[in-house]
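Running this now, will post back.
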Amino acid sequence: MANERVLKFPMSEKMFHNINMVTWMILAVTGMMIYFKTVGEATASLLMDFHIGIAIVFTLNFVGFAVLNADRFFLMLRNLLIWDADTFAWFKNFGGYPRRLFGIPFGPEEVAPQGRFNAGQKFTYLFFIFMIFGLIVTGWLLYFMAPVLGKTTMVYFFNFHVWGSIIATVMAVGAHLPLAVINIEDFKAMFRFGAGDVPLEDALHHAPKWVENDLVKVSTLEQPLKAHR
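Update: finished.
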């Protein structure tokens, strides 16, 4: 088991995630600079043009992943939408993070077994997917259809676009990123060049139900390995 590894992040997911992360942060920074008027009008106009250009990449990245890699996209959604008793039990001690990070004896010591994503990741990733879709829709409607939306609708869309992106960015930087670094094997799998695999031992520890229910053993000439269906 010590040398066995399992594929957790296929290349299509890695590309989607990393392009989405980079473009999201560029859009968030440029958008906030424009909204909070930290630059002059001329610079703000240039930033808006840049914002729109990056938004095209952001949109194509999401649509491309959802359409061209529909099998991976819907498999990811399936994993995120499985909420069983163990998923809800995760919230009894929040995955043991209060005890592990801050020494706070919150809830039971034992963490309920999780699937490919734990309950906190499921909640966060579903929120991020909703926000990605929502920001794409509201952004392009505001850009192309503002004159026909009506003032009230335009204000609602604008506030959702601005404040929704700020809330999601704070969640990504303040919670998602630090917890991703703590789960270092997942972090390395997502960001290193090459296969997005993790040690089988780590997968058994963090996602035992994923290993049990979704992985099958494949024989090779060298040694048995684990591979995703």
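The first helix runs from residue 11 to 35. More later if anyone needs it.
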